[in-house]
Design goal:
mainly alpha, two-stranded antiparallel sheet, binds zinc ion, 17 helices, 303 residues, globular, 1% strand
Length: 303
Amino acid sequence: MQNQTLELEQVELDKIGNTNAEDKADWGGMLPFFLVHVVCLSTFWVGVSWAAFGACLVMLFLRMFALTAGYHRYFSHRTYKTSRAFQFLLALIGTTSGQMGPLWWAAHHRHHHLHADTQEDVHPPTLKGFWWSHMGWVLCKKYYMNYDERSIRDFGRYPELRWLNENALLMPFLLGTVLFIFGQWLEVSAPTLHTNGIQMAVWGFFVSTVFLYHLTFCVNSLAHTVGSRRFETSDTSRNSFLLGLITMGEGWHNNHHRYPSSERQGFHWWEIDLTHYLLKALSWVGVVRELRNPPREINTKSR
Ligand SMILES: [Zn+2]
Ligand SMILES: [Zn+2]
């Protein structure tokens, strides 16, 4: 029975790790990725407080916005314009997510749009399997060590973005440290909150980072397998209300593949797109500008 379980586990690992000779998961190299998950188990020991839970939600929300509005809609697709300072802020917060630097992320994503659901695509669930598209490719040395610099030359010319990209692993570590110090300070200055440094680091950094990983990965896996298709695009992208809700609008993925240059991904009022609402609000106060909409005919025609 135990042998059978081990064999089954090996088959699952092989599905992730051996889609072809080069696309192979590098388990040792991605040890930090697994450790972030394992540390979450320590919530049973460190306990929880409203302050720590609040920090988890704030860190999840803030960093998801930096990924959806920054890494995705700005750096990958240039769907609006902003200042160099806000561009850097989005990149800085995004880098604390442990999803590499903005140039790495956007270069891989541009490649996905160019080759979606073909053998060239890095993470097509239909051709390379669900788990490969969800997280296997991120664990592959060939992809996490490299990106096509030519495809992201437009942002590669900013030295501060190149610096963030090269020091991407330092940023999550710094965020965890800041949260730890903040928790230690709260323990002394506001003891009624019943929190401390380690609890704040575990909830604010580790738990929120794991949620952020898998919500982001769902856009590559679930948004190409589950949901409806309004547009007959050449890929398998789908729209999902639930995924749209929990990923701040990224679940309207079929809309997005149909018109990637649009800042708005929910094309109708009922297609909830939190990232769009926030960017719209930021445009009213002049932080961002020239948000690109889908052309009118895209909304009326479904093919
Ligand atoms: Zn896609
Ligand atoms: Zn995209």
